[in-house]
Design a protein that fits this description.
The protein has 605 residues and is α+β, with helices and mostly antiparallel strands. The chain has 4 domains: 1-152, no CATH class; 166-289, Beta Polymerase, domain 2 (2-Layer Sandwich), CATH 3.30.460; 291-511, Up-down Bundle (Four Helix Bundle (Hemerythrin (Met), subunit A)), CATH 1.20.120.330; 529-603. The chain is built from 25 helices and 14 strands. The protein has helices spanning 2-16, 18-24, 29-52, 67-73, 77-82, 100-111, 125-133, 137-144, 154-172, 184-187, 212-234, 247-255, 259-267, 277-285, 293-300, 306-310, 315-337, 344-358, 364-382, 391-439, 444-456, 464-480, 490-522, 568-575, 587-597, and strands at 58-61, 85-92, 117-124, 147-151, 176-182, 196-202, 240-246, 269-273, 523-528, 531-538, 541-545, 554-557, 562-565, 601-603. A hairpin with a 2-residue loop joins β10 (531-538) and β11. It is extended. The protein starts with a helix and ends with a strand. 30% of the residues are buried.
Length: 605
């Protein structure tokens, strides 16, 4: 870690002091002339290429210290061995991907006579962000601190963020979990004066000498203090805008489905990460990070007062409010179904695929309305295709939104009932399955009685667990009752679920301890034909491992006197069956085993 920070600092200081070093170094007249000629050629190249392709975002001369990384990444090491190369990065906006080859061909023609030889790296903005996502932080930093020949904002923004990151890491690298860049820069909207949004996540999980709030405030003060220093060193007008979060509050924000945190994880690009941000990003893509019931409830209720709000606002605000009033309840319904908060386009698709086509819980006209608001109106407004709206159209939108929200409320009730029922049924069967493993296949009432007598009354488990068991059974019966309205609310089901998970976890733990103890009662260590082995007495079937060094399992049928090959799977299945014996072994059994195995058996104490 320290080497990475040191390397970053060296790159930064060498670039920032280059002009000073050049002026202080005594150069020969020939060297001065060569440098001036190179500057003139590079300036002419920049003017020509930008004139031909004005959409180019940036042109930067990559520091010599970072050249090796790019040579290895693009496999140009052999060429570099023969001839010293200068590396030049040309950055294009993502929407010009089709022009990438054209720009590179033209640029190669323009620099082919420049010495030393120039190796061109024509890349898209998204290629830089992909480097960050792939953990190639040094390469992103090298592009940021490259000598700018032309820059619409991205190089300056990356430069100030890279310097600020290095300053922060140098001061307290062990606390910083992730340093992530986001906002307009990542969206491809940066200018020379755009704010540079960075998020810094600080590890507070091992705080001992101060409170988490004190740690956050202390580090936040230092991090903010480096803002001006970074801007001065970078020599840019971009204002750094850092957001500092402690790890625990950031996780709470994700868990509670805070849209700001979800957007940041989805769109942010790490400039430094200790293995936290990238897994979050992947988990979010996989739908493994979802909101709590409280967060879901919040998503479902955002559009309640849309009518009176829309009626008071101008078109742009009205369109914005209607968009969120339709989008967020839709996202809430999908979250209740079990999905992570989707993007706006995904919301339209998922509402149609899940609630209209698959579950058949909503009518087609409401799917059409969602698509009209999100795609036709909001996205059209964003891209300048939808420029004005009449009062009559606005009234229709408001009415449609109110109608849609009322329909979503009913949809949520139906989805809530369905998911609540599935939750209760699963909990019931999970718990009953564990109890059957303890007490055998008996009736529900017998399982409850045995649980009470053998676990609660004996003090093996607290009395509150019996109450939890009865609540799960009661809820299950409520859903089993046909022709009656179920009176179990979503909130009550969620409470039962949390309690039941505690019960299940403790039953599983007890089951593991009970099983180990049960197996030990059945196990007998023995010398079998001179080798260390084991014998397990299970009713009329005895399992034997003749040699622990070669643990092949056999089984012996006491009544038939036959011995056969067996396996751990068969042993586990036999363990589940009811047994009458108490794990006792007799001289008669030993003699029968010796005869079947044709080996001498000596029990070990």
């Amino acid at each position: 870690m320290a080497e990475e920070v040191k390397k970053a600092e060296e790159l930064l200081t060498k670039i920032n002091e280059k002009e000073k070093q050049d002026s202080e170094r005594e150069l020969s007249e020939k060297q001065k002339k060569e440098i001036e000629q190179l500057k003139t050629k590079m300036d002419a190249f920049k003017k020509s290429i930008v004139k031909k392709f004005p959409f180019i975002d940036a042109i930067g001369l990559i520091p010599p210290q970072a050249a090796k990384m790019f040579e290895e990444d693009e496999q140009v090491a052999k060429i570099a061995e023969k001839e010293k190369l200068m590396h030049l990065a040309i950055v294009l906006p993502d929407d010009k991907e089709k022009d990438l080859a054209k720009v590179k061909i033209e640029a190669i023609k323009m620099v082919e006579h420049i010495k030393p030889k120039i190796w061109l790296h024509v890349i898209l903005t998204k290629d830089i962000w992909e480097m960050g996502s792939d953990g190639k932080y040094d390469m992103v930093e090298a592009i940021g601190i490259s000598m700018p020949l032309h820059d619409k904002g991205i190089l300056g923004a990356l430069r100030v963020a890279s310097i600020h990151k290095s300053l922060c890491l140098r001061k307290f690298e062990r606390y910083i979990v992730s340093y992530v860049i986001a906002g307009s820069l990542v969206r491809g909207e940066a200018t020379k004066t755009s704010d540079v949004d960075v998020w810094i996540v600080v590890d507070d999980t091992d705080v001992k000498r101060m409170t988490r709030a004190e740690l956050r405030d202390k580090l936040r003060g230092i991090i903010y203090g480096y803002m001006m220093e970074a801007a001065d060193l970078a020599g840019v007008k971009n204002k750094l805008s850092p957001q500092v979060y402690i790890l625990t509050e950031f996780w709470d924000g994700l868990r509670e489905a805070n849209p700001v945190f979800f957007t940041f994880v989805r769109d942010g690009v790490p400039l430094y990460d200790r293995g936290t941000f990238t897994p979050w990003k992947q988990l979010l893509k996989m739908g493994k990070i979802t909101g709590t019931p409280e967060a879901i409830e919040k998503f479902l209720t955002i559009g309640e007062k849309v009518g009176e709000i829309v009626e008071r606002k101008f078109m742009d605000i009205a369109v914005e409010d209607i968009y969120w009033s339709v989008l967020t309840p839709s996202q809430g319904a999908l979250m209740l179904y079990g999905l992570a908060p989707p993007t706006s386009k995904e919301t339209v698709r998922l509402m149609k695929e899940i609630f209209y086509e698959k579950e058949k819980l909503i009518e087609k006209k409401y799917i059409d309305f969602v698509e009209h608001v999100i795609i036709d109106i909001y996205k059209g407004y964003e891209h300048g295709k939808f420029k004005k709206i009449s009062g009559a159209e606005l009234d229709e939108l408001v009415k449609g939104t109110k109608d849609y929200i009322e329909r979503i409320k009913k949809l949520v009730e139906e989805v809530g009932k369905k998911t609540a029922e599935q939750t209760v049924i699963k909990l019931y069967h999970d718990i009953m399955g564990i109890l059957i493993g303890f007490f055998g296949k008996v009736s529900e009432s017998q399982l409850i009685k045995k649980f009470q007598d053998e676990m609660i009354e004996t003090g093996r488990m607290p009395a509150s667990y019996l109450k939890i068991l009865n609540e799960v059974i009661k809820a299950h019966r409520a859903y089993e009752t046909k022709g009656k309205e179920v009176k179990v609310s979503r909130e009550e089901v969620e409470r039962i679920r949390k309690d039941a998970q505690i019960l299940i976890a403790n039953l599983m733990e007890y089951h593991q301890r009970y099983r180990i103890f049960d197996i030990e009662k059945l196990r007998f260590a023995a010398k079998i034909g001179g080798s260390n082995g084991e014998i397990y007495i299970l009713n009329k079937i005895i399992f034997i491992i003749p040699d622990l060094q070669n643990p092949e399992m056999k089984k012996f049928d006491v009544s038939k006197g036959t011995i056969e090959e067996s396996s751990p799977v068969e042993f586990e299945e036999t363990l589940k069956q009811p047994r009458e014996n108490k794990g006792e072994i007799s001289k008669e059994i030993i003699e029968k085993l010796e005869k079947a195995l044709k080996k001498k058996i000596e029990l070990l104490v």
